[in-house]
Amino acid sequence: MGRGRAPCCAKVGLNKGSWTPEEDMRLIAYIHKYGHGNWRALPKFAGLLRCGKSCRLRWINYLRPDIKRGNFTKEEEDTIIKLHGLLGNKWSKIASCLPGRTDNEIKNVWNTHLKKRLAPKEEKSGENPEEIPSSPSSITTASVSVSCSDEGESKKEKEQNDKEQHEAMDDKIDKIELSVEPNLDMWDMLEDSSYSEITHENVEPPSSDVRVKGDDGNTLVDLPEILIEPEIWNMINDDLNIALTRDTTAAATPRTHHQNIKAKGEDEKERWLQYLEKELDSWEECAAATAQVEGADPVASYFQALQASPSPLDILY
DNA sequence: AAGTGGCTCAACCGCCGCGGG
DNA sequence: ACCCGCGGCGGTTGAGCCACT
After folding, report:
1. Which residues form the HTH myb-type domain (predicted)?
2. Are A79 and A56 found together in one domain?
């Protein structure tokens, strides 16, 4: 603890453990519509029985649009190894150099795979791979030009940090080459669609740009942008593909999460599009219905409807 | 088929640094 | 100068999965 501050949230009455699809959807829909200016307050406004930290972690490590799924490539592993040699256990810094990968993921990969893989070499060479090289000589064979991004930072901070990092690196090394993919700046994309950070001083969330009009042309209700932007659905694309690949009528062979991720293909994409269209209709129906009731929550209505008519999400979990 | 041990990874925990009041 | 709230980070945990016996 820092200076005796209170816990980030009152633990009593809050959900812990694995996230349910409903919680995921609530978080996605809320963040996509209102942003996450205040993690502490977010669960309250999103109707989630989670602490802010849990929401933040779930978003950053799993629900973010630019998360890359699947196994690490050889290039990515090499990058991690090299950067770990440079930076040590600075997982967030390493992650910033691997677009689509999270610090948590990298940490897991290091602890479960790379560390062990390097262990035999360490025994042979007598070196400890976890130690940050004390001198540039230990990495003289490499030559790196790193393009890192710290997505959570403001541009000013980012520039400053980048400068400091590069200066620090320059002190340690001459030049190291890493194959780093071009940064995927999904945040820019999201921010363009009224995604900017907000504070939650008022109980009422800000109004949306997205509205549905009634037959008379009057605005009926603010809708989550999930209605019109398929990109947001990509966040859960992989998981939904799992559901869609299952044969819901026959006794399909159960498949693991990893197997399903690998099973993606054109057929799944087609079926996904069909599901998307169907699902968007569901949202519109719920939104139209809740529009008749002042203060009604379209998200809540959506999930109430889901209980009556299960979607692939229900099959998935 | 059942038991078991190892592995994976999502999630939690506690601490730290920063910035605002 | 100090206090406090918050976001972020790194270490750790444990449930679920899988391979092997």
Report:
1. 11-63, 64-118
2. no
Residues A87, A149 within the same domain: yes
Instruction: Round and report the angstrom distance from CA (A138) to C1' (B3).
Output: 47
A119 and A143, same structural domain? yes
More confident residue, A22 or A126: A22
The residue whose two tokens read 């062979």 is A253
Please state, in angstroms and rounded to a whole number, the distance separating the CA atoms of residues A164 and A17. Answer: 38
- Would residue A182 count as lying in a domain? no
Nucleotides of B under 7 A from a protein CB: 7-19
Range of the domain at A105: 74-172
Long-range interactions of A257-263: CB distance < 8 A, separation 24+: A261/A69, A261/A70, A262/A70
Strand B: which residues 38-77 of A lie within 7 A (CB)? 50, 53-54, 57-58, 61-62
User: Which tens digit of pLDDT belongs to each residue from A294-313?
Assistant: 444 444 555 555 444 443 33
Statement to judge: residues A224 and A299 lie in one domain: yes
Question: Cβ neighbours of residue A254 under 8 Å, at least 6 residues apart?
Answer: none
Q: What is the mean pLDDT of chain A?
A: 57
